[in-house]
C-alpha cells in the first residue's frame, strides 16, 4: 500500500517560489481603475493598469453596460452556437469590424481564448509550420503548443530580426511545409516596442505565409491619425495581414477578445475554434460596455474627447522625462522612441526592482515589478503603463518619485 501524498507537491512547489521570492503577491484595488485610486487603504497614482484610454469607468461605457443588462439580462444562457447568440454580440462584431476597416469579426471570451483556440486550427497538421518571434506573449506560446504544426529553434527568430524571419521561412520551404503561419505580437508587452509589421508583411508575401498579429497592446493606442485602430491600421495593412487578434481588456476598458479579418477567416474560426464553441458567450453588460468603448473611440455624434491623443501626449511626456532623468537602458530608450503605452524602466536584479516598487508605493505611486523568469536575468524592471486619465501633475509627481528612489537604490 502506497503512502504517497497525491497533493503534497502543491505546497512544496509554492513554498519553493516563496523562498526564491518569485511568488505573486496580489494587492487589492478598493476602487475603480481610475488615475488616482485606492489600493489596500492607500490613495495612489495608478501606473500599472492596462486601462490605457481610461474607459473602464467612463460614464458612457458604464451607461451602455447598464442598458444592456436592462434589455438582455445578466447572462446569455448558452454558447453562441446553441442559444447564446444575442443581437448585442452581433452588433459588437459589426461595430468592431467597421472600426477596424475589416470585413468581419468573431468575438471570443478572452484574448487568451482566441490565441489558444484559433492558432491550433490554422495549422493543425505536422506538415504545417509555425514561425514565432522569440518574445511573443505567453498566450501565443500556449496556442502554439496546442498546435500539431512543426516549431522549434529552426522556426523561431531573434526578436524583430527580419533576416532571422526570412531564414525561418527558408527553413519552412526546406521541409516542404503545407501551411506557414508567422505569429508576432503587435506591441511586445514587456519591452513596449512595436513589431516591424510592414517588413514582416512584405517578407511573408514572398513565401506565401499567413500572418497572425496579436495586437492586445496596440488596440486603442496605435493607428493613423490618432484613431486607435491598432498596428494593422498604423501601417495601412488592412486586407494584407490575414489574422488580427484584438482584445477589449486593455485600452477598451472591458474584457474579451476578437479575431478580425476576412469573412472567410471568421466563417472558418466560428466553426473550428473550440474555445469559442465550448464557452458561454459574453454577458450582455460586457458586450454593451464594449460597444460604448467603440462609441468613444469613434467620437460618435461628436460628443467625446480624443482619448487616444491624450494617451499619446501623456506617454510622450513621461517617456522623455524618464530618459532625461538617466534611466537610459537600451530597452527603456527603445520603448521611449515608440508611440506605445508601455515604458519598461530597467532596474537590473529582481530584488532592486521589487524594492523600487515597494518604495514607489510608499510614495503614492502604484507600479509593479516584472522580474526573472518573466524577463531575462539582469533586466528586472518597473513596467509603467500610461493612461489617458492621468494629468501632467500626476506624471510630474511620478517622475519626481522615480528620480528620488532611483538615486536611493543607486540606479541613477
Question: Could you explain how this protein is built, in words?
Answer:
With 412 residues, the protein is of the alpha/beta class. It folds into two domains: 17-46 and 306-408, Aspartate Aminotransferase, domain 1; 59-301, Aspartate Aminotransferase, domain 2 (3-Layer(aba) Sandwich), CATH 3.40.640.10. 42% of the residues lie in helices and 14% in strands. The chain has 15 helices and 13 strands. The chain has helices at 8-19, 59-72, 87-100, 111-122, 138-146, 162-174, 197-207, 231-234, 263-272, 274-277, 284-298, 307-325, 330-336, 350-362, 392-408, and strands at 36-39, 42-46, 104-108, 129-133, 156-157, 180-185, 210-214, 243-247, 257-261, 342-348, 365-366, 369-370, 380-385. It has a seven-stranded mixed sheet with strand order 3-9-8-7-6-4-5, sandwiched between helices. A three-stranded mixed sheet has the order 1-2-11. The longest helix has 19 residues, at 307-325. The radius of gyration is 22 Å and the shape is globular. It starts with 7 loop residues before the first helix and ends with a helix.
Q: SSE layout and pairings?
A:
Elements (H helix, E strand, L loop, with lengths): L7 H12 L16 E4 L2 E5 L12 H14 L14 H14 L3 E5 L2 H12 L6 E5 L4 H9 L9 E2 L4 H13 L5 E6 L11 H11 L2 E5 L16 H4 L8 E5 L9 E5 L1 H10 L1 H4 L6 H15 L8 H19 L4 H7 L5 E7 L1 H13 L2 E2 L2 E2 L9 E6 L6 H17 L4
Parallel strand pairs: 2-11, 4-5, 4-6, 6-7, 7-8
Antiparallel strand pairs: 1-2, 3-9, 8-9, 10-13, 12-13
Helix pairs in contact: 2-11, 3-11, 4-5, 6-7, 12-13, 12-15
Amino acid at each position: 500500500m502506497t503512502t504517497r501524498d497525491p497533493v503534497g507537491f502543491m505546497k512544496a512547489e509554492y513554498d519553493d517560489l516563496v523562498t526564491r521570492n518569485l511568488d505573486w503577491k496580489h494587492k487589492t484595488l478598493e476602487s475603480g481603475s481610475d488615475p488616482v485610486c485606492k489600493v489596500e487603504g492607500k490613495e495612489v497614482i495608478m501606473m500599472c493598469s492596462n486601462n490605457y484610454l481610461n474607459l473602464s469607468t467612463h460614464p458612457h461605457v458604464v451607461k451602455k453596460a447598464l442598458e444592456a443588462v436592462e434589455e438582455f439580462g445578466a447572462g446569455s444562457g448558452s454558447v453562441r452556437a446553441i442559444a447564446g447568440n444575442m443581437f448585442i454580440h452581433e452588433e459588437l462584431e459589426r461595430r468592431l469590424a467597421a472600426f477596424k476597416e475589416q470585413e468581419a469579426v468573431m468575438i471570443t471570451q478572452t484574448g487568451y481564448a482566441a490565441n489558444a483556440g484559433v492558432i491550433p486550427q490554422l495549422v493543425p497538421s505536422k506538415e504545417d509550420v509555425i514561425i514565432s518571434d522569440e518574445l511573443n506573449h505567453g498566450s501565443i506560446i500556449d496556442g502554439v503548443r496546442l498546435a500539431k504544426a512543426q516549431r522549434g529553434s529552426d522556426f523561431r527568430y531573434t526578436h524583430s530580426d527580419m533576416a532571422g524571419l526570412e531564414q525561418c521561412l527558408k527553413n519552412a520551404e526546406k521541409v516542404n511545409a503545407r501551411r506557414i503561419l508567422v505569429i508576432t505580437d503587435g506591441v511586445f508587452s514587456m519591452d513596449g516596442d512595436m513589431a516591424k509589421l510592414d517588413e514582416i508583411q512584405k517578407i511573408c508575401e514572398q513565401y506565401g505565409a499567413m500572418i497572425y498579429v496579436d495586437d492586445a497592446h496596440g488596440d486603442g493606442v496605435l493607428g493613423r491619425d490618432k484613431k486607435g485602430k491598432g498596428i494593422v491600421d498604423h501601417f495601412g495593412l488592412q486586407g494584407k495581414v490575414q489574422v488580427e487578434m484584438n482584445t477589449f481588456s486593455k485600452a477598451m476598458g472591458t474584457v474579451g477578445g476578437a479575431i478580425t479579418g476576412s469573412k472567410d477567416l471568421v466563417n472558418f474560426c466560428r466553426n473550428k475554434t473550440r474555445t469559442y464553441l465550448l464557452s458561454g458567450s459574453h454577458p450582455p453588460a460586457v458586450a454593451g460596455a464594449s460597444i460604448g468603448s467603440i462609441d468613444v473611440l469613434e467620437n460618435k455624434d461628436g460628443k467625446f474627447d480624443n482619448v487616444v491623443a491624450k494617451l499619446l501626449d501623456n506617454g510622450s511626456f513621461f517617456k522623455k522625462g524618464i530618459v532625461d532623468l538617466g534611466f537610459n537602458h537600451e530597452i527603456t530608450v527603445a520603448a521611449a522612441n515608440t508611440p506605445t503605452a508601455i515604458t519598461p524602466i530597467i532596474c537590473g536584479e529582481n530584488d532592486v526592482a521589487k524594492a523600487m516598487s515597494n518604495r514607489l508605493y510608499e510614495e503614492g505611486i502604484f507600479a509593479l515589478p516584472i522580474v526573472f523568469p518573466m524577463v531575462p536575468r539582469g533586466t528586472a524592471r518597473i513596467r509603467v503603463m500610461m493612461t489617458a486619465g492621468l494629468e501632467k501633475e500626476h506624471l510630474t509627481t511620478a517622475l519626481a518619485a522615480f528620480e528620488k528612489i532611483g538615486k536611493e537604490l543607486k540606479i541613477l
